Amino acid sequence: MNWYLQSGKDSDVIISSRVRLSRNIEGIPFVGKCKEEELKTVYSKLKSIVSSLGYGLKFIDLKDLDDINKEVLVEKHLISPEFAKSKNPYSAIILNDEENICIVINEEDHIKLQVFCSGIELENLMNLAIEIDQKLENLIPYSFSKKYGYLTACPTNVGTGLKISVMCHLPALTVTGNIRKVLNAVNNLGMSVKGVYGEGSKAEGDIYQISNNQTLGVTEKEITKNLKLISQKIIEQERLARKYLGKKGLDLEDRIYRDFGLVSNARKISEEETRELLSSVKLGTDLGIIKELNDSKVAKLMLETKPACIQKRLGKRLSVYEQDIERANIIKEIIKEDE
Question: What is the DSSP string of 147-212?
Answer without folding.
Answer: TTEE--SSGGGTBT-EEEEEEEE-HHHHHTT-HHHHHHHHHHTTEEEEBTTBTT---BTTEEEEEE
